[in-house]
Write a structure and sequence with these properties.
With about 550 residues, the protein is an alpha+beta fold. It contains 16 helices and 19 strands. Strands 3, 4, 5, 6, 7, 8, 13, 17 and 18 form a 9-stranded antiparallel β-sheet that branches. An 8-stranded antiparallel β-sheet has the order 9-10-11-12-19-16-15-14. Strands 1-2 form a two-stranded antiparallel ribbon. A hairpin with a 2-residue loop joins strand 9 and strand 10. The radius of gyration is 26 Å and the shape is elongated. It starts with a helix and ends with a strand. The mean pLDDT is about 90.
């Protein structure tokens, strides 16, 4: 397989193959689709001045063009060659921004108009195709025929390459190499480019129906009955939803019929995404998700269903999530419900928001992180949950009793009972967690129960927001936590030791912030071990 890819890569670089790609019937663009992803005029102005803020890394290079900058960071290079930053120049508008955009495109073509295994990688290429076709009206507003001919000639060449290389075997390769979440994003980006480009040129419209059929297959495979993507990552859901809305809006503008499956997925996807919205308007962090910004989330959901601040569900039971909302407290929990494709490494992980502030949860986003960082941030230990012997629980072994959850109300409290068998094969142990939040919003109580037939070490980890100030009592039986001027008392019951240790939180931009975690450490000295812990507003 590796030898085949090497040989194929060598062939793609030959003059013969380039001649084949270049042999096209060039035609004028007849339709310009809109990009629903919002551009930032401030970033656009910075680009004109030589400030390149890409993939969370800023470089100032007023004397050199973007393609002359020496930067080996893969994420930065991919973002540069994707041309997704064109939306910012369009938002800045004006002849100066247009001139700068065209200059960067022409300089890029001088270096990369022929196949290159890095800059013509299919996801990068597909993002570039989408960026060019959705910004055609901006780029060609001054009706420069020479520039238009150059751009169209290379665009047809890239579309032909993308069309030829997109097939089932390549999609399978993506799944195997990148996993469910990242491969799904890549596949949707590729299909978005193919669908949009097929609508831009009359001769390509005959391919539209086939691309839509491939898209339908992909969505049916990776979205569940709740309308949630199988990665169970809220920011992945948002990114894919944005691409699907872009496709739908283009179909509407082209006056074609929107497929029923696409309309259904968009509406259900927007509804399920609202489940993860915090009072600050951002997203809860599960499975390495980004928090994203309120502006971006509002923009995409508004395009999806016209109700950006509409109330979402409090339960996604088929997806494995529950949410408790009680007078200023919002608690999200991963129930570890069985899924066909993805199982969380952190069953019963919780995130708590107090008002508009995140109180506790996971260690943050895996966005643009390398393999080792991703592995660490997705581990059970990087979440606020219970871990046995400092290991991740196993995936579902096919048992119908692998995970169970029940939600009910009792004595003025919202209660969720959870159980999982992720440690059953490893340690013959079953873990359960009962979460109770009083409707007054003054108390959160959590009961942990471990049933085990051997001596096991366990940790209940509670990763705090970097803004939380925490101190242990002298006897280390309690802790005081202060967030935004409000104090909360932490207490526990059970044969465990309370520890205060360092932790981290990775922000959306990749910045690592130092923070703290509370740990309740103990051993299963009996067949049944119980630990009760929680917070009380003071």
């Amino acid at each position: 397989m590796i030898i085949f890819r090497v040989v194929k890569n060598i062939f793609f670089k030959t003059k013969l193959y380039d001649y084949y790609l270049s042999k096209n019937s060039i035609e004028e663009i007849s339709f310009t689709p809109k990009d629903i992803w919002p551009g930032d005029p401030i970033l656009g102005d910075q680009l004109v001045q030589g400030y390149y803020n890409l993939a969370n890394k800023k470089i100032y290079s007023p004397e050199e063009t973007l393609w002359q900058i020496s930067n080996t960071n893969t994420f930065w290079q991919n973002e540069a060659h994707s041309f997704s930053w064109l939306r910012h120049l369009k938002a800045r508008s004006g002849s100066l921004a247009r001139k700068h955009a065209r200059l960067l495109i022409l300089d890029w073509l001088k270096l990369y108009e022929n196949y290159n295994n890095k800059t013509w990688e299919l996801e990068i290429l597909s993002r570039r195709v989408s960026a060019w076709v959705t910004n055609f009206d901006f780029l060609l507003a001054e009706k420069d025929k020479k520039f238009s001919d150059i751009l169209l000639r290379n665009l047809f060449k890239q579309i032909k390459f993308l069309r030829n290389q997109t097939n089932k075997s390549y999609f399978f390769f993506l799944e195997k190499k990148y996993g469910l979440e990242e491969s799904s994003i890549k596949k949707i980006k590729i299909l978005r480019a193919l669908i949009l480009s097929s609508m831009c040129f009359e001769s390509q419209l005959v391919r539209f129906a086939n691309y839509i059929k491939i898209l339908e297959s992909e969505l049916k495979t990776n979205f569940n009955i709740d309308g949630l993507h199988e990665s169970k990552s809220p920011s992945t859901q948002l990114e894919i939803l944005g691409d699907l809305v872009t496709i739908r809006e283009a179909i509407v503008s082209k006056q074609l019929k929107v497929p029923d499956f696409l309309e259904t997925i968009i509406k259900k996807g927007a509804h399920s995404l609202k489940f993860f919205r915090t009072p600050a308007g951002t997203l809860a962090i599960f499975n390495g998700s980004k928090q994203e910004t309120k502006f971006l989330i509002d923009k995409i959901i508004n395009q999806a269903d016209g109700q950006p601040r509409g109330r979402g569900p409090i339960s996604l039971s088929k997806s494995g999530f529950e949410k408790i909302v009680c007078n200023g407290i919002i608690l999200f929990v991963d129930t570890h419900y069985n899924s066909n494709k993805n199982y969380s490494n952190a069953p019963h992980a919780i995130e708590i928001n107090l008002g508009k502030n995140r109180f506790l949860g996971s260690c943050g986003s895996i966005y643009k992180q390398n393999k080792n960082w991703r592995k660490s941030l997705l581990s059970a230990a990087a979440h606020s949950t219970l871990i046995l012997e400092n290991t991740n629980p196993n995936k579902n072994n096919g048992s119908d009793t692998f995970a169970f959850s029940k939600r009910y109300q009792k004595d003025g409290s919202e209660i969720v009972f959870l159980r999982h068998e992720g440690y059953k094969n490893k340690f013959t142990a079953t873990c359960s967690r009962t979460i109770e939040v009083n409707r007054t919003g003054k108390n959160v109580a959590i009961l942990e129960e471990i049933q085990a037939f051997k001596l096991l070490k366990f940790d209940i980890r509670i990763h705090l927001n970097p803004k939380v100030k925490v101190s242990l009592s002298l006897d280390k039986n309690k802790a005081l936590l202060i967030l935004d001027g409000q104090g909360w008392d932490f207490s526990f019951q059970g044969n465990v030791k309370l520890l205060l240790e360092p932790s981290i939180f990775v922000e959306d931009n990749g910045k690592v912030k130092q923070t703290n975690q509370l740990i309740l450490h103990g051993e299963t000295l009996e067949e049944r071990t119980e630990v009760l812990w929680g917070f009380t507003k003071n």
